[in-house]
Structure formats: structure tokens, C-alpha cells
Design brief:
Blueprint (H helix, E strand, L loop, with lengths): L1 E2 L10 E15 L4 H25 L4 E12 L4 E13 L1
Parallel strand pairs: 1-3
Antiparallel strand pairs: 2-4, 3-4
Length: 91
């Protein structure tokens, strides 16, 4: 599956737009920089796996226009990563 932040894929033609797909991951974190960076990377990976799974359910072979949003809920010591894009079929 092709995952991209761009709205098109070079040398491919989008033949069908299948819908918006998302992946979200949340986790508690510490305030130590190394732990926070590691936590964000793990959450991003989980969110992208969910995005991929949701796109596969729609029979997509690519997701375009991907946006990544990272939020910190300091009062709850949580990091939230959400990934959103458009599932498409390309040839």
C-alpha cells in the first residue's frame, strides 16, 4: 500500500476515491525528552497501522493527503497521535 502526504502519486492514476480513513493512538508519557520522543514514535507507528488497516477494509491500495496531528494532554500525561488521509484505488 502506498501512503503519502501528497494529493497525487507520481506515475499512478487515481481511479476511485473510497473515503476518509483515520488511525488514532493514545498513550501515557513521562516528561523526560527521550521517553517522550520514543512514545511519540510508537504512537505514530500504531496510528499508521490502524490507518493502513482501515484503508484495506475499503479495498484501497493507497492513501493520499495524509496529515499527522500530535496533541499533548499535560494534565493527564497523555500523547494523542491521529493520522488522517483519503483512501484511494490507483493504477
Amino acid at each position: 500500500m502506498i501512503l503519502t502526504t501528497t494529493n497525487s502519486i507520481e506515475e499512478h492514476k487515481i481511479i476511485d476515491y473510497l473515503g476518509v480513513v483515520t488511525g488514532i493512538s493514545t498513550n501515557k508519557h513521562s516528561f523526560f525528552k527521550d521517553d517522550l520522543n520514543e512514545n511519540i514514535e510508537k504512537n505514530k507507528e500504531i496510528a499508521f497501522q490502524q490507518l493502513h488497516k482501515n484503508a484495506t477494509k475499503l479495498k484501497a491500495n493507497a492513501v493520499v493527503g495524509i496529515k499527522v496531528d500530535i496533541e499533548f494532554l499535560e494534565q493527564r500525561y497523555k500523547t494523542i497521535v491521529s493520522v488522517t488521509g483519503t483512501a484511494v484505488k490507483v493504477i
